[in-house]
Amino acid sequence: MDSAKHPMCALEDSCRYLGVSLAALALLTACDGGSSDAPSTSPASTTSAQAAVTTTTTVAAPPTAQGPRMEKWIELQVGECLSDAPPSDPSVVTVSVVDCATAHAAEVYLRADVEVNAAIADVADRECAAGFTRYTGQSVAGSPFVVSYLIDSNQDRTSANPLPSTVICVLTASNAGPLTGSARR
User: Distance between CA atoms of 174 and 138, rounded to whole angstroms?
Assistant: First the structure.
């Protein structure tokens, strides 16, 4: 093979050298911090020998609450809060997930795998009631919450998975009002 480099290889090497050089320059600039006795090349110090050097520090703004995001309801995880009540329409695929510190309508508190033939109301109710107590530290009866659930029934009866369905338990306020904060103990 010819020892001459292909033009594209030379371009790649030049770009790689430029990238490494820029990274090194940025690192040296950041590490300098004005502690060096060497003269600075910043515009403020080159305009006049008498000019004072001004250092500007940029402070990042504190993180803000994350805005709503759309998520498939079958992918909801424990601790996530929904801006609206869980969908009852089977054609609704996505829900709006919000930060639990903001006003919200519902909170996911349990995901439980269940047998394919058991993904029915009595099993879902039993799983959700037990999960509610573990999550909140109180029983559903007498609490300020109402429990509902969604069932993701992956009804593949040909697979060897004995627990293909998932019950997703959700709590809402018993007065249908908004919730703020998490119900997790």
Answer: 15
> DSSP character for 65?
P
CB 135 within 8 A of CB 185: yes
Strand partners, 151: 167
Spatial contact of 79 and 134, defined as CB atoms under 8 Å apart: no
Strand extents, DSSP E, 37-138: 69-72, 81-82, 94-98, 106-114
Predicted confidence (pLDDT) per residue in 4-17, tens digit: 444 444 434 443 44
What is the pairing mode between strands 69-72 and 81-82?
A: unpaired
49 alpha carbon, distance to own chain's centre? 51
Q: With CA atoms as reference, report the closest residue to 55 among 73, 74, 42, 67.
A: 42
Give every CB contact of residue 18 below 8 A, 6+ residues apart in sequence: none
pLDDT tens digit string along 30-82?
Answer: 444 444 444 444 444 334 444 455 545 455 544 455 689 999 999 999 999 99
Sequence-ordered strand ranges (E) for the chain: 69-72, 81-82, 94-98, 106-114, 145-153, 165-173
Would you call 171 exposed, middle or buried from its count of C-beta atoms within 10 A (0-12, 13-18, 19+)? Answer: buried
Whether the CB-CB separation of 109 and 183 falls below 8 Å is answered with yes
